[in-house]
Amino acid sequence: MIGQARWTLIIGGLVGLMTVADVHAAEKITIPNSELHTITSRETGDVYQIQIRLPNGEAPEAGFPVVYLLDSNAWFGMASDLLRTRAMNTDSTGIAPAILVGIAYPTDAPYDLKRRTYDLTPPSEIVTMPPRPNGKPWPPTGGADAFLRLIETQVKPLVDQRAPVDKSQETLIGHSFGGLFALHVMLTQPEAFDTYLAGSPSIWFNQKQVLHEAKAHLAAGGSVKGRVYICVGGEEEDITPAEEAHPQAEIRRQWKKHNRMIGNAQDFVALMSDQPELDIAFKVFEGEDHGTIIPQLMIHGLHFAFNQKAP
Asked: How confident is the model at residue 138 (pLDDT cuts 50, 70, 90)?
């Protein structure tokens, strides 16, 4: 007679075999309607990966709106899901089917910290930077204008080849140095995009270079036009609970206080508040820090881009 324990072993083995037999070969998960293009900058020789997600259905007569996403290695999936699902019910969300264009680097890492530091920071003859919390030297900076030329002369023509584009509805999304890049472009080449979404912009860069440039532009009688949405996290000027236990907790605390992510953003918005042709919205999201602000930027910023105001 076979004991109960042995029956259990035999039955368990059969179940295991059946489970293996029912499992099909693994396949890669892909984002629907998305494609990857590799381009080389004619100006710098640097290689970029351009991620494009096309909407379903035929384009409207004016073409599809386009959303350009910086740091796309990290955030293309989130932005794609938000655009796709919110556009399923345009009548209630106001978000229409749109082309998503992610500008990424040839790496599997979420960020290429060296290259993004160069690409997303404005040029200056003199650059003064605070010590980094990790004690390492800063990578090269100042490539923002060349990066914008790449977008204008190589990325946008590529998108034009893939689907009809509504040139009156082009949005740029950037976070941190990406937010700084968005503000720099808005001030220097405002016609490049119609709407700028800047999350936690690094206005502190090079002793608040972008803020001083804005002040000089306005003092010279210039104006600022367009639409811009700026948001920051309410916890960005202090360390997170996890950082409290870090050996360099005090260094990180001083770094965040020096950067004044909330205060600098408030100063920028106040400076722009009397520009009659600038539609500007600003929000501090309580409880969010420099990283967790990104989903809020995506959700509320996209509503601002497609509607008269953010929810």
From this structure: very high
* Assigned token pair, 42: 């004619």
Q: How far apart, in whole angstroms, are the C-alpha atoms of residue 212 and residue 218? A: 10
Q: Is there a contact between 178 and 68 (Cβ–Cβ < 8 Å)?
A: no
Tell me how far apart the alpha carbons of residues 259 and 47 are, in angstroms, rounded to a whole number: 31
**What 3-state DSSP class applies to 43?**
coil
Residue whose structure tokens are 């602000």: 293
Q: What value, to the nearest 5°, has the Cα angle with vertex 47 and ends 42 and 53?
A: 105
Task: State the pTM of this model.
Answer: 0.91
Tell the burial category of 281 from Cβ atoms under 10 Å away from its Cβ (0-12, 13-18, 19+): middle
Residue 85 CB burial class (10 angstroms; 0-12, 13-18, ≥19): exposed
Angle between the 205-219 and 261-272 helix axes, to the nearest 10 degrees?
Answer: 10
Q: What is the pLDDT of residues 66-78, one digit of tens each?
A: 999 999 999 999 9
pLDDT higher than 90, residue 236: yes
Q: What single string gives the DSSP state of each residue in 245-280?
A: TSTTHHHHHHHHHHH-HHHHHHHHHHHHTT-TTEEE
Q: Which residues are catalytic?
A: 176, 243, 290
CA distance 154 to 43: 11
% of the chain with per-residue pLDDT over 90: 84
Domains defined for the chain, CATH in brackets: 31-306 (3.40.50.1820)
pLDDT at position 42 over 90: yes
Buried b / exposed e across 18-44, counting CB within 10 Å, b at 16+?
eeeeeeeeeeeeeeeeeeeeeeebeee
The count of C-alpha atoms lying within 13 angstroms of the C-alpha of 104, restricted to the half-sphere facing its C-beta, is 22
134, 158 in Cβ contact below 8 A? no
Is a pLDDT exceeding 60 seen at residue 15? no
